[in-house]
Amino acid sequence: MKPLYIWSYINTVIPSTSERKFLFDVCNQEGIDTLIADIKWSMGLDWATFMAEANDRGIEVHALISGNSATEDYSDRISFAENNGFAGISWDIEPENITEYTALMESFTTSMFQSCYLNAPFYMNRDSGANYADISNLYSKFDLILINSYADTLSFQITHANDAPLLCAELGIDFMLGIETAEFMIEGGIYTLWDEDLPTYRSLMAEVYNNYKGNPLFKGVYTHHWHPDAFMKWFTEDNMVIHEASSVDFSFEVLVPRHSTVTTVQAFTQTYPVETEVVVEDAICPEHDITG
To answer: Same domain, yes or no, for 165 and 117?
Structure first.
């Protein structure tokens, strides 16, 4: 699995044919097979078309459920995720009250939680001031921990991840590391990939992967998050493989002479991937000795 988060920009992507195509083109080119999309303000949009197009491109869509408190009512978003073909749920509630967050997770019985992910802030660690046992209990409610270790270098990534990978190892829970594209600043400087280029983005992803790949619980690197300004700067016509269509339909018709006694003609249609070279010679109807 290689996920990409998409937050508020989902509200402009879903209604736009060109933006959807650009998003899916980037996903296919970079091997991204999972979109984790925020549904908080977008439940009234045409998700059916978005999901169908994503699935046609081999991309799963998971519902991102975000909020400002674990005491909010999330039942509408849970119901929406259950009834609209999402492959799973990812949670991101900030700021965190660990006890309330855990109680919220324990209150649900939905089958969607067979694929339930926690978008974990990097400061959840042994020295964060929160009760380590409570954090462990919260982590244990999820199938996968997604660690947002915002940084533009490997060493900074490891520092930001803190003890989250160690905690996952102790609990036997799968985890992933995330790299950030948004314009976040600290001490007057941008510490994310916002001001970097495409080779740096790909290089950092490879470096993070290679650093953790020896851990059997490590499941890869994800991108947090889809920021059109960054991706439009990185992916241009010069470095994009354009996907106009995933397949082409070829129809074969039997041509019947004008004075034939044939009353029923079967037409055949076959679909081929765009990469397939198809050579069509004669269509033949052996039963009536007709070619065309």
So the answer is: yes
Q: What angle do CA 157, 8, 198 make, to 5 degrees?
A: 45
Give dist(CA 159, CA 88) in Å, integer. 29
Domain identity same for 209 and 274: no
Q: Beta-carbon neighbour count of residue 99 at 10 Å?
A: 14
* Number of domains present in the structure of the chain: 2
197 and 257 in one domain? no
Model pLDDT for residues 173-216, shown as the tens digit of each residue: 999 999 988 888 777 677 788 889 999 999 999 999 999 999 99
- β-sheet bridge partners, residue 272: 248
Sole residue written with tokens 């102790």: 170
Tell me: pLDDT of 287 over 80. Answer: no
Residues with Cβ within 8 Å of residue 118, at least 6 apart in sequence: 90, 91, 138, 139, 141, 142, 144, 145, 146
Q: Is 249 left (phi over 0), alpha (psi -120 to 50) or beta?
A: beta
Task: Confirm whether pTM is higher than 0.90.
Answer: no
Give yes or no: residues 154 and 222 share one domain. yes
Whether 30 and 69 map to the same domain: the answer is: yes
